[in-house]
Design a protein that fits this description.
Belongs to the peptidase S41A family. InterPro entries: ClpP/crotonase-like_dom_sf (IPR029045), Cterm_S41_CtpZ (IPR054628), PDZ (IPR001478), PDZ_sf (IPR036034), Peptidase_S41A (IPR004447), Tail-specific_protease (IPR005151). This is C-terminal processing peptidase-2, Serine peptidase, MEROPS family S41A. GO terms for molecular function: endopeptidase activity; serine-type peptidase activity. With about 425 residues, this protein is α+β, with helices and mostly antiparallel strands. The chain has three domains: about 55 residues; about 90 residues, PDZ domain (Pdz3 Domain, Roll), CATH 2.30.42.10; about 200 residues, Alpha-Beta Complex (2-enoyl-CoA Hydratase, Chain A, domain 1), CATH 3.90.226. The protein has 13 helices and 18 strands. Strand 14, helix 12 and strand 15 form a beta-alpha-beta unit. The longest helix has about 40 residues. The radius of gyration is 30 Å and the shape is globular. The N and C termini lie far apart (about 140 Å).
């Protein structure tokens, strides 16, 4: 009897052990091992946003994207700063400087810039070179401390207050250049001629004034001059009003100036392109799994007269979309220097704590299918270097060149029109003689 009880005891013990194990496993799978804090949830939120929309998902396999999320969550995240650092470390292996976290202060500054109000800082619009990670000047804002100091497009930012922009990243570098009016920032620069220099800049309020116009008169013609320095929220309406005003003053031609326009809202750039193009393709966008049909302009235009367009190395992103559309549709000759070459489009989203996330979600192609990322757009005519430092001023040689080109175009059209009329008269005379 004892032996039979013992023989039953072992199976029961095993069954009991199995049941206990099952219970433990069941408890593990039905209850979370720990609750995620706000900082960890923010990391997951950022990861999900990138995972859902990033342009090149093949990159995820290369960098083991899922493991990067896990690695980020393994580190202590007890406050916002630790969460931000974890997100930035997680995004770094993507190798895309435009997919980035914007901390709340930087996010607010970017939103203000897109609205077109004033900003406090030195007035440098920056980009990042993918091939070497250098932070470079796309353009200085007109009337800014950077512009007054003669900083030009293509200048490399080597240090900001002793810190390396390569280590800081694009957004943190821009943030360190901003600050209260009257404060100083020391910047080490590598100029396009490879000269290294260090300068001190005093931050101040910079009026963005994205749209500027004037009339230019010479002995035989009146031209309209339209300069767009960025594509912020209110720019399409301002451009429309400017074109209507210039057209009402009987201009013979238009000089569109996109120099040092580093871009902004793609939607604003498309709206301005629509002012000049009638039922023509503006741009194609390439997303993660398809190339969308070209976005085309409407039938009506605000200005359909002769025009030339000035571009330079500071012409980037949304302004390159406009320049490429004008060139490919043979609507306007591009003159100046090669453009910057930023052919990527970012979406900008709010994160739950007031920070923002910029994610590269598309690239764009010009109407003829050109991908200009890191390549830029070659103008139809290169203008003589060095480039003028104050676009639109009386000392602007390139603007004078644009006037001469515009005048030659108009004179050629007038001669051609005159010859056409003379040919028509001769043909009518010949027909009349044959009848007689």
């Amino acid at each position: 009897m004892l032996s039979s009880v013992k023989s039953l005891t072992k199976p029961l013990q095993r069954l009991f052990a199995v049941l206990i194990s099952f219970g433990i496993l069941f408890q593990v799978f039905t209850q979370p091992a720990f609750a995620l804090n706000d900082g960890q949830l923010l990391v997951i939120e950022a990861w999900n946003q990138v995972n859902a929309g990033y342009l090149d998902p093949k990159k995820f396999d290369e960098i083991q994207w899922k493991k990067l999320r896990q690695k980020a969550l393994e580190k202590p995240i007890n406050n916002s700063q630790q969460a931000y650092s974890a997100i930035e470390a997680m995004l770094l292996p993507l190798g895309d400087p435009y997919t980035r976290l914007l901390r709340p202060v930087d996010y607010e500054a970017m939103k203000k810039s897109n609205i077109g109000s004033e900003i406090n800082g030195v007035g440098l619009q920056l980009g990042a070179r993918k091939e070497d990670g250098d932070i470079v000047v796309i353009s200085p804002l007109e009337g800014s401390p950077a512009s007054d100091a003669g900083i030009t497009s293509g200048t490399i930012i080597k240090k900001v207050n002793g810190q390396s922009p390569k280590q800081l990243g694009l957004e943190a570098t821009a943030a360190k250049l901003r600050g209260q009016t009257g404060t100083q920032v020391i910047v080490e620069l590598e100029q396009p001629d490879n000269e290294i220099k260090e300068i001190s800049l005093e931050r101040r309020s910079v009026d963005l004034r994205p749209v500027r116009t004037k009339r230019i008169r010479n002995e035989s013609h009146t031209f309209g001059y339209l300069r767009i320095t960025q594509f912020s929220e209110g720019v399409p309406e301002q451009v429309k009003e400017a074109l209507e005003e210039l057209s009402g003053k009987d201009i013979d031609g238009l000089i569109l100036d996109l120099r040092n326009n580093s871009g902004g809202l793609v939607s604003s750039g498309l709206a301005v392109a629509d002012d000049f193009l009638s039922d023509m393709p503006i741009v194609e966008t390439k997303k993660r799994d398809s190339i969308n049909d070209p976005i085309s302009s409407g039938l009506e235009t605000i200005y359909d007269g002769p025009m030339v367009t000035l571009v330079n190395e500071g012409t980037a992103s949304a302004s390159e979309i406009l320049a490429g559309a004008l060139q490919d549709n043979k609507r306007s000759e591009l003159i100046g220097n090669k453009t910057f070459g930023k052919g990527l489009i970012q979406s900008l989203t709010n994160l739950s704590d007031g920070s923002g996330l910029a994610v590269t979600v598309a690239s764009y192609l010009t109407p003829s299918g050109r991908d200009i990322q890191n390549l830029g757009i070659d103008p139809d005519r290169l203008l003589e270097m060095p480039e003028p430092l104050n676009p639109g001023s009386d000392e602007d040689r390139w603007l004078l060149d644009a006037e001469l080109i515009m005048q030659a175009t108009l004179d050629k059209e007038e001669v051609s029109e005159k010859l056409s009329k003379e040919t028509l008269v001769k043909e009518e005379q010949l027909i009349s003689q044959e009848i007689e």
